[in-house]
Hints:
Layout: E1 7-10, E2 16-19, E3 24-30, E4 34-40, E5 45-49, H1 66-79, E6 88-93, H2 104-119, E7 123-128, E8 133-139, E9 144-150, E10 169-171
Parallel strand pairs: 1-3, 6-7, 9-10
Antiparallel strand pairs: 2-5, 3-8, 4-5, 4-6, 8-9
Amino acid sequence: MTPLGSKVIHVVLGEHAISDDPDAIITTILGSCVSACILDPDRRIGGLNHFLLPDGGPGGGDNRYAAAALELLVNGLLRRGAVRSRLRAKLFGGARMLAGLPDIGQRNAEAARRFLCDEGIPLLNCDLGGTQARRIRLWPVSGRVQLMLLGEARRPPREAPTRPKVGDVELF
């Protein structure tokens, strides 16, 4: 349930949203796709993206691919007054939605982790892998994230990846 008076911004594949509005909630639904929630806690601004594929793609500027989507989100935050050294991240998604096919979700998660490491952006929290879709809600000013697993868990074709949970992510 969304609090009354909230301004809900829904992000779909290949998009991102950034806000410093205390009433804003940025939301998305993920399967094998990954979303990065990146924020500057001092500036009280944050954003969320939604990407589909791990590799660069033709020309490298397609928002459906990890590097382009993450770069757009970071640059958008910096243009709005965030400071690179204060950026912090949380990652979600990367489920294995179809058994028997290549695990694109895992590759998406690895691409996002690699980007954050290369850019020196600390990863505060993540919920990656598994076999369930997720609904994510981000309060960009506080960095609070709610996570809801959708549907029933399926038996994974192999052992599911570990899913560390640290920080302020709440299940709803």
